[in-house]
Write a structure and sequence with these properties.
By secondary structure, the protein is α+β, with helices and mostly antiparallel strands. The chain has four helices and seven strands. The chain has a seven-stranded mixed β-sheet. It is globular. It binds coenzyme A. Coenzyme A binds next to β4, α3 and α4.
């Protein structure tokens, strides 16, 4: 199982329907950098970063792992890669909207809650 930078059309598009059903927004904003987890040629996990180079702020979005591949640590490995990538681009601030399944993972990485949760959506911030 490998984690690598991905191409939205080729690698991520096949995951879009499943992710949407899980409530994950999967649009591809300009300048987005995508990552994926791949197992024997099958892309099973994804996430993306959108960096604003003027403000040095980044947004993390579209984190998703196919149900049958969950709990193998892919997401946590991908987040380490995302963090490294942000540090290399001299990002100073990372924001993310997360759900109950990944909230604790991001809190464990030093993210803090920005505002009161709306339903099951939490808005988080990490300053670098
Ligand atoms: C959140 C999500 C991306 C995690 O992916 P993953 O590759 O299974 O993550 P990991 O294996 O690195 O485990 C991360 C956490 O997921 C949870 N987890 C572990 N096994 C799981 C399973 N079988 N099913 C659901 N969640 C599980 C645990 O909280 C785990 O943290 P822990 O090891 O500290 O207990 C995945 O559950 C998912 O796609 N969920 C639906 C969409 C979603 O909620 N996306 C985030 C909102 S944008």
């Amino acid at each position: 199982m490998a984690i690598r930078v991905a191409d939205f059309e080729k690698d991520i598009q096949p995951l879009v329907n499943g992710a949407k059903k899980a409530g994950v927004s999967m649009y591809n904003p300009p300048g987005a950098v995508w990552f994926c987890g791949e197992d024997d040629g099958r892309v099973y996990s994804c996430g993306c970063i959108v960096v604003n180079d003027k403000t040095k702020a980044a947004r993390w979005k579209s984190d998703f792992t196919l149900p049958e591949y969950r709990g193998r640590g892919t997401y946590k490995r991908m987040l380490k890669l995302k963090l490294l990538y942000c540090m290399k681009r001299q990002v100073k601030k990372i924001t993310a909207f997360v759900g109950p399944l990944n909230l604790n993972v991001l809190l464990g990485m030093g993210f803090t809650m920005v505002s009161k949760p709306k339903a099951d959506v939490f808005y988080l911030l990490k300053e670098l």
